[in-house]
Structures are given as structure tokens and as C-alpha cells.
Amino acid sequence: MRFKNSPFFSFRLFSFSGPHFGGPAVPSRVFGGSTATQVCNAVRVLSYPLVVRTVKVNFLAPGSTDTPTDYAVERYADVLNITGRQKGKIFVTGKATVGNSPDLLNSTLYKMPTVQAPLAYPTLTHCMATTPDPKPWNVFKVLSEAGWFEVRPTDFDGTISTLRPERTMCFWATLGADYRDSASLERADGVSVVMLLSDYLIGCSGLVHRALIGSHKQFDGGASLSHIVTFHTHLIDGTGYFLFETISEVQATNKYLLHARIFAEDGEHVASVTQEAYSPLAKM
């Protein structure tokens, strides 16, 4: 990343040369979590020493993994507006709020679900290899093959067998071994890892919900429309496991609304996530 000076104090241009992370399902398109992380890091540079409170990203069009991305960031007091372009075309917009550390919403009412330690559960790769009929659960197949994160579901059999709208899905996740030493992630800290993770697993609840009611044959995969991350702390260790708890409460036609909470291994609630997503019609 590099930034270009501007004569306006409240305006900066940030450039990420790429290549960018491709999505697990469509590798030629930029992964939404990667774009959201770039937006967050541009905001962090411009607003330092303040910390990021909330980041909202609106995805307008697919981005290319090989095309440099320029972000125009305008700051008005504690609010920043972001516009992302590739080859001059806008493909993402966003808004962020920043503040001092005590301004973070850190008195959460949500406690980490009661689960065992991460290594007590089999990996998602193992779960898929031992599933009699993996076809409806293509979202898990895609994520296990991508390998960005080592994922360990806390109740895989229950997740794919019972539809209970009020029931959340929980996954332990940590950066995959092949990506921990990646040049693209060599300077990634805890905030960056949480931003990447926030878009990696959140869609599972919506797509599993869809599979359990049989509509997975009508729609194919999923993609983010808007993505909001609220941080409850900025002191995050990116090297350990995170517990990712997600739920899909509302669905209509090909769109669904998703919520997630991310906890550190010690039980601290580090971030909350809300996403609106959609699934394109399946090719018949």
C-alpha cells in the first residue's frame, strides 16, 4: 500500500497494487473480505492514532484480482467516506467511524457460547470428507479447499441436519498454515485478520439455511452486497483461534440478512458483523 499526498488535509488517495486475494468460489474476483480489509487499513492510516470503531462497505460490482485499486478517503471529523476504483470505475464505497479507545462499544451483553477448545473438534476438511452427501453443502467444500483459514465446526452434524431459525452456527478459525507466511499477509495484525475472517464464514448460515429448505438447487453460491464490522477492542492477537458465531434470521427470494459475533480464545467479544448478501440464479 502507498498513499498519495493531496493539498486537502481531509482527503487522501491510497493505492493497493495487488494481486488481491480472489474469492474462494470465484478466484478471478476479489474476495470481499480482502477489499473490506484494505478499506479498514486505509482508514487506520489516515486516522491514526485514533482507532476504527465501525467499517461499512457496499459492494457495487466485482473487483479484479490483478488490477490495482485506488481508494479515495475523505475525513470529516470522526467520519470517513471511502470510494474504491479499478481502472477509474467505482466498484466499492464505504463509510467508517473512528475514535479514542474508550469510545469502543466494549461492554457487550453477549458472552462466548460454551464450547470446547479448538483442537477438540475435527477440521472442516475432515467433516466434509466423512459426509455421506456433500452436494448440498458446497459452501463448506469451497471454504475447506480454499484453506485461508483452518476451520473447526463445533457441531457440524447438527448444523447440516436440523433447521432451527433461532440456532446459531459456531466455528473455530485461525489463519491457515499456507497463508500465515504469505507475502500478502506478512504485516497483517489482529484487526486485519478479523476483517478477513468477518466475510469468510458469515455466509455459511444463510447458505446452509437455504440448503435445508431445498432451495440450494435454485440458487448458486452467494456474494456480499453490504458488510458492516463493529470493533469492541483494537487489542487483538491475530495468531490464535477465533470463535465465529453466525446466524441467518431473514431470507427473501435470493437475498438474506446475516449476523455474526467474533470472540477471541479467552472469550473476549472482539467484533460484531452484519451482512446483506444474495445468491445468483443457478444455471440450469
UniProtKB/TrEMBL annotation:
Listed PANTHER family: ACYL-COA THIOESTERASE, ACYL-COENZYME A THIOESTERASE 8
Gene Ontology cellular-component terms listed: peroxisomal matrix
GO terms classed as biological process: acyl-CoA metabolic process; fatty acid catabolic process
Organism field: Steinernema glaseri
Name of the molecule in the record: Thioesterase superfamily protein
Molecular function via GO: fatty acyl-CoA hydrolase activity
A Pfam match: 4HBT_3C
Similarity section: Belongs to the C/M/P thioester hydrolase family.
Boundaries of every Acyl-CoA thioesterase-like C-terminal domain copy: 132-278
